[in-house]
Amino acid sequence: MPLLLTGPPATADSDDTALQAAFAEAADRYGVPESVLLAVSYLESRWDGHDGAASVTGGYGPMHLTDAATALAESTARGHHAEGAEDPRGDDSRPLPAANRADAGTNPGAHVEVDAVQAAARTLPHAAELTGTPAEELRTSEAANVAGGAALLADAQRALGAPASDDPADWYGAVAAYAGAETREAAEVFADDVYDVLATGVSRVTDSGQRVTLAPVTVTPDTAVADALGLPSGGRDPEVECPRTVACDWIPAPYQDLGDGDYGNHDIADRPDSQDVDYLVIHDTEATWDTTLDLVQDPTYVSWHYSLRSSDGQIAQHLRTKDVGWHAGNWYVNAKSIGLEHEGFLTDPDAWYTEAMYRTSARLVRYLARAYDIPLDRQHIIGHDNVQGPTNANVAGMHTDPGPYWDWSHYFELLGAPFHATAGPRGGLVTIAPDYDTNTTGYVNCGSPGQQCQPHGSGAVRLHTAPRHDAPLVRDIATHPGDGESSTGVNDVGARASAGQTFAVADRSGDWTAIWYLGQEAWFHNPADAPTAVNARGLVVTGRPGATTIPVYGRAYPEAAAYPPDVPVQSVVPLAYEIPADQEYAVGLRTDSEYYRAVTFDPADHQVVRGEEYYQIQLGHRIGFVRATDVRLGWSGR
């Protein structure tokens, strides 16, 4: 069915159909089917102009015209795992990885020169030549940008020796060329996605308030014309674990003995035989593509399983999914997860998460979920920002990507598991589900301390101590040790709930709903005419009879008696949060406690210790774990 989305309303005196008209005019001028032009643009940007800001690959406007010389003169990003004492492994049984120690030198990926950026990052100058339009206008004017994209498609069609046809089926080769891909497989994935958009249709309001519609088109493209592109076939490395519908390369992370008992940058394992994989962790890279690949191939750095490129969704796999990467900051989660890094920067939503990357990522997640029997829900598919600190000392330093601008609702629609009501108002739970485009909750600290972030859609709601907008934010005493005061900072998750997360209802008052959150009643605006959550029903935990509080942990480690003599007992200390026993918290999954002992280069010495049962709960913005013996399990709404 067509994917129907809404967005910010246009102002009364604006023309909210100007962009639609620009597509029609550009299509007519350059002889490109309007439906093809719309579908290519949707895949590149969902028709958003991003207010003239560049993407992480130097792309501008609805057609993502690229200009690396302007946007990417030099990148100094080191990646979001290289932050001094932060430990991506979250395991205090071993020293920090070499790249994270205070004496670490410069990473090989610390700088990326423009010349290293692929040639596809220079389409805007070519569009300027074809249209006679100044480059600055192509960057800042949405109408000019659309015309530039149409000119590029028409030029690609001519280069293939194909006529300017009115039939969308005849444009497959030009669409594949528009991707600027380096292999035939990648080009065809892009083109196939464009034709999927054509077949389903889409309608939405853009970030500038423009109403754009693409009606469904029945079309069977001539895919053989892609032969004329002359792109090499990359083949597929036998190590790759990816669906056939995506372009995927094997770029391995090194498993290397560094001497003195140190090794990098991951652990050899045998999952799922050794341990179940329960989580898929969604990250953003906080670095460019080239930097990301440099870092993951550095044996002194850390590792994750997959990287996804912003411009076209190209996937690079670095670890076998059976092995354990060092990426989540919590060793329990690392040992039971697969990490996916997406090229982008969370504080700059317009250096952006492209539709191509969302779609490729969703295909990969569906593939992995089937392979490891992982449910398609937000209790198992989590952001890096949802991973709890393993101990109180770690909570404040945990990461916050992919941040409030990652569109979880759209992502789960692509996964085929959209958020929807599963109960009436007496179900006892709510699932957060604001309309992303109209939910423009303001944030600060984008670019510099105190700097206001540009108004932008968001998948998160803000939580207050009372049902009014001027009430203080709920406190997070572990994320903010000392005063516990939460803020509106883009990296502050202390008073935030995100799309897809499910919480127990504590109260309702008019247009406001309260949930149990970090031991408090947390209120968010949820008006009936523009709801930001849907009703749900499911399993919850409360404290055992006679208990006053529920101890909550950052990792589900076994009790001391479960450890064999040759494995040091790992501490299990409750987090600082005070959770009254009569409060309810939504259950995400139940699991035996586990500790994966991996402190030697030889995996033959690795062990898995198992113990008592735990439940994962939605504690706050981050998950938490409670011992089954400390709680009572039941259904919500009773």
Please report the distance between the alpha carbons of the first and last residues: 36 Å
Radius of gyration: 25 Å
Rough outline: globular
Strand order of the largest sheet: 8-14-13-16-12-17
Low-confidence stretches: 1-13, 102-119
- Identify the CATH class of the largest domain: Alpha Beta
Helical fraction equals 10-25%
CATH superfamily grouping of the largest domain: Peptidoglycan recognition protein-like
* Helix count, DSSP H or I runs of 4 or more residues: 13
The number of domains: 3
Question: From the coordinates shown, what is the CATH architecture of the largest domain?
Answer: 3-Layer(aba) Sandwich
Give the structure's gist in a few sentences.
The chain is α+β, with helices and mostly antiparallel strands and 638 residues long.
Can you tell me about this structure?
It is a single chain. The protein has 638 residues and is of the alpha+beta class. It has three domains: 3-74 and 113-229, Lysozyme (Orthogonal Bundle); 77-110 and 239-542, Peptidoglycan recognition protein-like (Lysozyme-like); 543-635, no CATH class. 20% of the residues lie in helices and 20% in strands. The chain is built from 13 helices and 29 strands. It has a six-stranded mixed sheet with strand order 8-14-13-16-12-17, sandwiched between helices. Strands 23-22-21-18-24 form a five-stranded antiparallel sheet, with no helix packed on it. The protein has a five-stranded antiparallel sheet with strand order 28-27-26-25-29. Strand 21 (502-509) and strand 22 form a beta hairpin. Helix 2 packs across helix 8 (184-200), helix 4 (123-131) packs across helix 6 (142-159) and helix 11 crosses helix 13. The radius of gyration is 25 Å and the shape is globular.
